[in-house]
Amino acid sequence: MAVQTPPRATEKPQGWKSFTYGELDEIKRDLHFHPSPVKNPKRLTFDQIAHYNEKGYLTGIRIFAEKEALQNRVYFDSILERTFAAGKDSYSIATAHRKYRGVHEMATHPVVLDYVSDILGDRFVLWGTHFFCKMPGDGKAVSWHQDASYWPMTPSKTVTLWLAIDDSDTGNGCMRVIPRSHHQGHLTWRYSEKSENNVLDQTVDNAEQYGDPPVDFILKAGEISMHSDLILHGSEPNRSDRRRCGLTMRYAATDVRAYMGWNEKGVVCRGTDPDGHWSNYPPPEEY
Ligand SMILES: O=C(O)CCC(=O)C(=O)O
């Protein structure tokens, strides 16, 4: 299969493809951690950048004031209503910036992009947005995994900003990470057991052996965490009577190559894309 030639953007959407892990393995991927090269940050302190490089994450950063966070929640409620009306579940809202203008706007908010530029530098794309919305008592967990393990992209230079739509804490199944595990390269995983009730399908066993003890990301609505695409992370089920929704917003340096049509997801946020790799479609109409 000719998966090694990087695709160029086309005028007409071709669509991203589903693929098997066997096909993914045919792509020669560079999966090791690329530390932030940024020397003139706009929002993060030098200590925060050093923390990200050493531990693979940052947390507790406020982006949206309380009033705006409430607007985000009301907006997400309307997306969720449309999703349920279409017979889909609360985890199905993926690549949402290509479907909903409001999500595109949230993920390209100038303050959000400043934080991304403090990790990736001056040239990057937004390519992923996925709501992880745990309804009260739905029983779903996210098993320990590395994001880059799932993606047809190389090199691994994606940072995810997880924006709390609802308050997120230990009681309603907040995200957790294994600090320093992003230095371990691509770890061995297995298919998740049905009994894990995993939203995704990969599990890395005995995650604690790969770094420091797990850290819970306790966030108020409107705050973000940031994590490397190689850090081990996951979350427990929501055992509370409160919803726990977070919007993952994923950004990659423009020189990352995406296969399987995933370059069509990419929107240039800062700098240019001299090779015309990312499709850079305009924001969608539907709000
Ligand atoms: O929201 C969660 O619980 C998990 C999110 C996640 O796995 C991710 O950001 O890749």
What features would you describe in this structure?
The longest helix is centred in the first third of the chain and has 20 residues, at 66-85. The protein is an alpha+beta fold. The chain has a single domain, classed as Sandwich (Jelly Rolls). The model has no long low-confidence stretch (mean pLDDT 96). The chain has helices spanning 21-25, 46-55, 66-85, 101-107, 110-120, and strands spanning 57-62, 124-134, 142-145, 153-154, 158-164, 175-177, 190-191, 202-203, 215-216, 223-228, 233-235, 244-253, 257-258, 267-270. Helix content is 18%, strand content 22%. The relative contact order is 0.25. The chain is built from five helices and 14 strands. The strands form four sheets. A six-stranded antiparallel beta sheet has the order 1-10-5-12-2-14. A four-stranded antiparallel beta sheet has the order 3-11-6-9, with no helix packed on it. 2-oxoglutaric acid binds next to strand 5, strand 11 and strand 12.
Helix/strand order: HHEHHHEEEEEEEEEEEEE
Fraction in helix: 10-25%
At the fold tier of CATH, the topology name is: Jelly Rolls
Taking the sheet with the most strands, its summary is: 6 strands, antiparallel
> For the terminal residues, how far apart are their CA atoms?
38 Å
How would you sum up the global shape? globular
Q: Identify the CATH architecture.
A: Sandwich
- Order of strands side by side in the largest beta sheet? 1-10-5-12-2-14
In CATH terms, the superfamily is q2cbj1_9rhob like domain
Number of domains: 1
Helix/strand/pairing category: alpha+beta
In the CATH scheme, the class would be Mainly Beta
Task: From the alpha carbons, calculate the radius of gyration and give it in angstroms.
Answer: 18 Å
Number of helices: 5
